[in-house]
Amino acid sequence: MPVKGSCHCGATQFEVETAPTEITECNCSYCSKRGNLAAYYTPETFRLLTARDRVSTYQFGHYLGSHHHCAICGCGTYSEFPDFSTGKPDYDKPRVSINARLLDDFDPAPVQRRYVNGRDDW
C-alpha cells in the first residue's frame, strides 16, 4: 500500500510503494544538519506528486547526488544518487532516498536502524 509524505508546508508531496523496513542514520554534515532518517527506494517505487519545477535542488562535493527540497518551506524531501552499496557509485542502479520523518502516519522509532559514519568514512 502506498505511503505518502510531504514537506512541512505540503507544497512538495511524494509517495513510496511501501513503508520503510530499514532506516539509515548518517552523521555526515549534511544528514545530521537536516535531521535526515534515510529510507532508500528504486526510482520505480518513488513517485513525486508535485510538479518537478516546484522543487529546488542542491548539489555539493563531487555532484554525485541531487538533494531536493521544497522551494517554499525549505524542507529537504528526497535525494537521488547512484547506488553506493559496493563502496563505489553504480550509475546503473539509481536510488532515491527519502527522509522517513516526512512520511504521513509513520513512526520511525520501531524500524531497524543502520548507522553510517559519514563524518569519518567519506
From TrEMBL:
User: Residue ranges of the CENP-V/GFA domain?
Assistant: 3-122
The UniProt record lists the keyword Metal-binding: yes
**Record-annotated membrane-spanning stretches:** none
InterPro entries listed in its UniProt record? CENP-V-like, CENP-V/GFA, Mss4-like_sf
Listed Pfam families: GFA
What keywords are annotated for this sequence in UniProt?
Metal-binding, Zinc
Regarding protein family, the annotation reads: Belongs to the Gfa family.
Please give the name of this protein: GFA family protein
UniProt organism field: Caulobacter hibisci
